[in-house]
Design a protein that fits this description.
Blueprint (H helix, E strand, L loop, with lengths): L22 H17 L9 H26 L16 H4 L5
Helix pairs in contact: 1-2
Length: 99
C-alpha cells in the first residue's frame, strides 16, 4: 500500500519461492477483502482499501509491541518514562506506529 519498495525484495515469493513481490496481487487481494468487509457493513460508511490495510498494520504493530511492553514492565520499568530506540530491519519502518 505504498510503504514498501517491491523491487528491493528478493524473489522468494510464489508457489516455487522464485517470484518477486507482487504489489498488484497485494492490491487486488486487499480490494477483494475490502469488498467482503464492506458487504457485511451495509448500513455503515464503507472502508477504503487503504483503511483495511492500515487496520492490518495496527493489529500487527500491537502484536509486536505487546511482548516488548510486557517484558519492560516485568523488569520494573515504566514505559512512560522511557523512549523506544529501534534499529535494523523492518522495525525502523514501524517504530513510529508502536505506542
Amino acid at each position: 500500500m505504498g510503504r514498501l519498495v517491491p523491487s528491493l525484495f528478493p524473489s522468494i515469493f510464489g508457489p516455487e519461492a522464485n517470484e518477486p513481490l507482487d504489489a498488484t496481487a497485494s492490491f487486488a487481494a486487499f480490494d477483494q477483502l475490502t469488498a467482503e468487509i464492506n458487504s457485511q457493513r451495509a448500513a455503515s460508511v464503507p472502508y477504503t482499501t487503504y483503511q483495511v490495510a492500515a487496520g492490518f498494520l495496527t493489529i500487527a504493530n500491537e502484536g509486536m509491541s505487546r511482548p516488548m511492553r510486557k517484558l519492560t514492565e516485568q523488569r520494573g520499568f515504566t514505559l512512560a518514562s522511557h523512549d523506544l530506540c529501534c534499529f535494523g530491519g523492518l522495525v525502523t519502518r514501524i517504530e513510529g506506529d508502536i505506542r
